[in-house]
Structure formats: structure tokens, C-alpha cells
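REQUEST ID: PR-0412
SUBMITTED BY: lab tech R.K.
PRIORITY: routine
TASK: structure prediction, single protein chain
INPUT:
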Amino acid sequence: MPDDRVRRRRGGAGACGVLLALVLAAVLLSAQPDDGGPHPDAGACAPLTVTDWSQDEGLTGEFARYGDDPARTDDWTGGDGTHSVRLPDGRLLWLFSDTFLGRVYGPPNPAGESHTWRDPAAPMVRNSAVVMTGDRLDTTLAAPLFPDPAPDRWRWPVAARVEPRASGSAEQVVRVLLWVRTAGQPPWIYGVPTATEVATLTLPGLRVESITTVFDQSLLPDPSRRVLFGTTLIEEDNWTYVYGGDDGQAVSRPVSSAYVARVPEGRLGDPAAWRFWTGSGWSARDGPRPVLGDERETGVGSAFSVVRDGGGYVLFTMAAGTAGLSTVTSYWSCSPTGPWHGPGEGFAPALPRPGVAAYNPQVHPEAGGGDGRLVLSYDINWPEPTGAAAQLNGNVSLYRPRFVTLRLAPER
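STATUS: complete
OUTPUT:
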């Protein structure tokens, strides 16, 4: 996996990689009038930076409580690839990639340490979903929620939104972006990027109704140039802007590049509706071009998040280089397509113990920080494949999301 992801055994734990190029079925259409420049309200745009942050012990503790609940024998006990979406009835749906199920024991653990632990034989699935009502997690949906499409191929859920079943429809559904990856040899220890899919879930029952491939990358010869979309999305002006990235870090490029597509509201699951930013306009025919990343000093980690704040946009990612396993940094822009400025000064959220890695920073506007603050999650894991299973099973807190709240303000 890219440098800012942890090194895990395949089938052990993990999830979320990133993305390039285009082989989209049919459609000829190309550049549209919108050039991706500043929006009409761009006068309100100013350089934004993180002015202060603090650990969110409430949310972090709630996932620990839920995962440790001894009454649950087949539910979620840990996962990564943390994403969320607010449902119309107020519930919050949390989506995870590689997930441990089963029972948690202790403390103490078998080594006599004061940590809860899981049996090494505990089941692991490629994805899961947990429902939160109010501020309390209460239900794990049948896992995996999204079945493997083929042997040695799996699905990792990423960003999601509630939208009309079709443009103009009064019926709402949940649309979930999925990354399809295929088992591969080093350096593709987290799977070869293969395709982006969109799943449609019914409301309020959250039943998987259909899964559609919207961007197939399987024929692109260089896997490091393949783009998977859905690490984050923003909703604006009846469009959904969907961001993705390539897997450049898997082949030792210092950073990966970010890309963006847009889709009319209600049509995320329609491949013909997707348009990709080419550097000068939106096209269904031409391949996407990076909006951020010079393959050396600027760019994104294996997963990143974008949020709109006032007239500007902020992108959160792990820092490049050795700080990438501990430090979150940000870029800002006046448009969804950039140009992106930065990176800004980073911050290092708390880690449960020395030697572990942080990755996949994701903003959760729907989780609410209160007082103008944003909630951001980050995933935790053991960074080396050797001994990873023993570490994760011996201390379950090493494979659960953690949270911070932060405030954005104009740079001074």
C-alpha cells in the first residue's frame, strides 16, 4: 500500500488505497462551459488553515464501547477506511473497509497487559456498516454489506451520499462509492486498483439494491496510474463532486495525485453522467488530469478528504515523507478543481502507543463538531507486516478510528 498506509498481511486488516485514467463506456461529450474556476461567491474565499484542534474523546470512546461490548459476539470490533453519511431519519451510517467481527476479551490480554484483545481466529470481512442513533452506536448490518465481486477481488466502501433515486425524483436512496481491488504481488500488497463502483441502498431499510461499475480501470497497463474515485465527495449546486487518486505511492513516488469528477444530483450510479476534470473543462471522453500533485513534494496520501468552508475548500491528507504516518496537513482552494495551495502547517493527533501509524483523515460534517468545529477521523494500525496480526489482536485499540475536532480560519 502507499507509504501513508500501514503494512498489513493480506486478509489481516486494512483498507483504502487510491487511483487514474479512463475507459468509460460510450458517451461522446466533452468540455462543458464551466471551466472549474472560482464560483460566483469566490469573493468570500480566503486562505484557510487549521487554527486549533483537540482530541474528540466522546466519539473515540463510543467506538471503543461498542467494539468492546461483551454482549455482542458477531458484531464490529474494529475496522478502518472510516466514512459516514447522515440518513434522512437522523441516523448516521458509518462505513468501514477491512473489519474484524467476533468477541473482545479482557483485560488483561494474554501477555498480561491491560488491553482488551480478540481471538486470533476472529472473522475478518472486507467491509461493514454500523448504524448510530443519536450519539450511540447500536447496530452492525449483516457483514460484509457488499459481497466480493469475484474470487481474490473485493470491495471497499468509501464516500457516500443520500440523493434522489433519479434526477427530479421524490424518492431518496443512499449511494455508496466502492473501490474494487484485486489480489496482487508486491508492491500491490493491498490489491491492484481495478474499478470504481456505485452501490444503491434502499431507505430506510439500507438493503443493497444494485451495484454498478462507473469507472473501469482494469485495462490500463500501469496499475500505479489507475484512478479510483470516491475517497471524498462534496455536494454543491445540484452536482456531486467526487475526488479520487492514483496509487503512485505503491511504486515509491513520494506522493499520489488527486483527481475530481462531477455528476448531476441523482445520477451517481449512471456511468454516462460522469464528467472528469481535464485541466480546462469537464469531459466524458478524455481521461482525468490531476488537480493536485507534482509526484515529489505536493500531493495526497492514499486517502484524503475535502470540505467546503464559506467560499473556500480545504483538503486534508497525511503529510508527505516520513511525517506521513503521523501528521495531518491541509491544502486550500477557491474552487473544487483548484488550484490547491499548500501544504499548510500540519498537526499530529494522538496515537494509542509508540510505533503505530495514522492514515486516512476524513472529515465528517454530518457528525457535527458544534461551535463551528469540524469532526475529523483518522485510522490507526500497525505499520509493519511482521507481527501485525499479533499486535492487532493483542490490543484491539490499534485498529479502530480515532477522532479530533478542529477549527478552520483565514490564514494570518
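NOTES: Residues 42-410 form a domain with the Tachylectin-2; Chain A fold (CATH 2.115.10.20).
REVIEWED BY: pending
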